[in-house]
Amino acid sequence: MQVDERTISGEWSPRLSSWSVGLAIFAVFLNLLAIAVSFYISHWLLHHRTVLNDAVLSVVLISTSPVLALLVLRRCFPLVLFFAFILGWILKAQFDQVIAFYAAGPDALVSKWDSPGVSLLILGMLSILILVVRVVAHIFARLRQ
Questions:
Q1: Within the chain, what is the greatest distance between any pair of CA atoms?
Q2: Which one, 22, 49, 99, 101, has the greatest CB density within 10 A?
Q3: How confident is the model at residue 75 (pLDDT cuts 50, 70, 90)?
Q4: Domain boundaries along the sequence of the chain
């Protein structure tokens, strides 16, 4: 078995990088689908009137921030795998809520907080934090040169 110098230096191999990019594209699709299902649950199933104001806009921007993080960090396989796993779990939980609603009616969604939606917001804030750390590290690396 031959050892690749890029693997030793910490860079990702081209084969792993192509898997990472493909998984990042899939995770972006999962994120956008999770946001769509969240609006479906709140608007059509629970009949909450969504008014486009600053609060809704900030929630949408925070919820879509994993898309930006996945596009920027698409070659870092562990982070892409983490985001894809969490986004898949969030989407599965949202589909479980839709199935419970159709099986038991509106009483099935009695919790005050939408836990998959809150998880999506937490993941969005985490992705913003990861992007800020990456930008700060990049700035410090440029300043050292």
A1: 62
A2: 101
A3: confident
A4: 5-144
